[in-house]
Amino acid sequence: MKVSFLSENINKKISFVNHAVSNRSTLPILLNFLLLAKKGKFSISATDLEIGIEISVAANIEEEGGITVPAKTFYELLGNIPKGKVNLYTKDNALFFEADRIKTVFQTISADEFPKIYEEKGEKIATIDSKALSSDLPKVVLAAANDAGRPALSGILMEKEEKGGGFLMVATDGYRLSLKKGGCSEKQVGKKDQESLLVPARLIRELVSVKDWAGDIGVYSSVGNNQILFFLEDAVLAGRLIEAEFPNYEKIIPSDFSTRVVTDREEFQKAVKTCSVFAREAANIVKLSLEKGSSSKAGKIVVSASAPSLGETSIDVEAVIEGEENEIAFNARYLLEFLGSVNPEKIIFEMTGPLTPGVFKLDDDKDFLHIIMPIRVQGQ
């Protein structure tokens, strides 16, 4: 193999592929990058057997070939060299790396030992556009569980909608739920066994991490290999679909409410953040008291928290409140993660009682909702 490329062409993408390098594998090959120069394309790949990532960069290929090199060292070296031309070539089972006044020799393992990231591309089922990548996916994936011990809850359900030609996306960790309709567009009519897919949340988080350069993403499903693949511009992300039964999310969504609140998102977020200083010393509980206004006085949300060892605090946030006055308590972290993932001027909150789920909606997106389970506090 003999190739040359500009370091600046690879630096913004190399961190993406580095996310797929195994941290604790007993297989030495999984600690390596696969470098491949073939058919006029130079690519770098990594896999930990859960996910696989391949990036391609513009390069001058004088001699085709492939080799694997220690990923951590290769990644750190690229991050510390100046902009300019990099030359790579193999000789006697070693990789020579040459840049401006830098000469490095890497020990290697044969490319033949590197696992294939995917066997076949499969059928194209959808396209994720830049809006969905930067706005829709982040506010859905935050509700997925990080615990791989609960497979169904560590995924995002992508379900074909009967109308509209798109996909509904939903995630839940048992304490909160995010649902978005029409989150990505359907490009082809898939097979019946592709009408719903349970995609590992880790894959979606990886996509969100490259929203600044990814562009539109083609989504492919390889049914025979139980894989889902995301084709970006000059990159591929692959992983296995989760084989588990997703909870019946429709039963979780309340069908009505007795109190409806409209308030300023930013002011509400600031109030919760301030109260969280006290809440973190007391099970992270923040209480919301919803008080209706009068002809001379605006309605308000009283956000409060208390800790026996510290004291207590409360903040009034102006709001329009319809229906019954009410109160409810939530985990402050869940509130802050939701409020930090959205950016409308106004948010809508609906509830029926202190022990029933609270539903958050967005003023600028009627196809999204977020549910947080309440916390029982003393006296309820």
Structure commentary:
This protein has three domains: 2-113, DNA Polymerase III, subunit A, domain 2 (DNA Polymerase III, Chain A, domain 2, Roll), CATH 3.10.150.10; 123-248, DNA Polymerase III, subunit A, domain 2 (DNA Polymerase III, Chain A, domain 2, Roll), CATH 3.10.150; 254-372, Roll (DNA Polymerase III, Chain A, domain 2). Helix 1 (7-18) runs antiparallel to helix 2. It contains seven helices and 25 strands. The strands form two sheets. It has a 20-stranded antiparallel sheet that branches. It is elongated, with a radius of gyration of 25 Å. By secondary structure, the protein is α+β, with helices and mostly antiparallel strands.
SSE arrangement:
Blueprint: E1 2-6, H1 7-18, E2 32-38, E3 41-47, E4 51-57, E5 60-63, E6 65-70, H2 71-80, E7 85-91, E8 94-99, E9 102-107, E10 123-128, H3 130-141, E11 155-160, E12 166-172, E13 176-186, E14 196-200, H4 201-209, E15 217-222, E16 227-232, E17 235-240, H5 249-252, E18 259-264, H6 265-279, E19 285-291, E20 300-307, E21 311-323, E22 326-331, H7 332-341, E23 346-351, E24 358-362, E25 365-372
Antiparallel strand pairs: 1-5, 1-7, 2-3, 2-6, 3-4, 4-17, 7-8, 8-9, 10-13, 10-15, 11-12, 11-14, 12-13, 13-25, 15-16, 16-17, 18-21, 18-23, 19-20, 19-22, 20-21, 23-24, 24-25
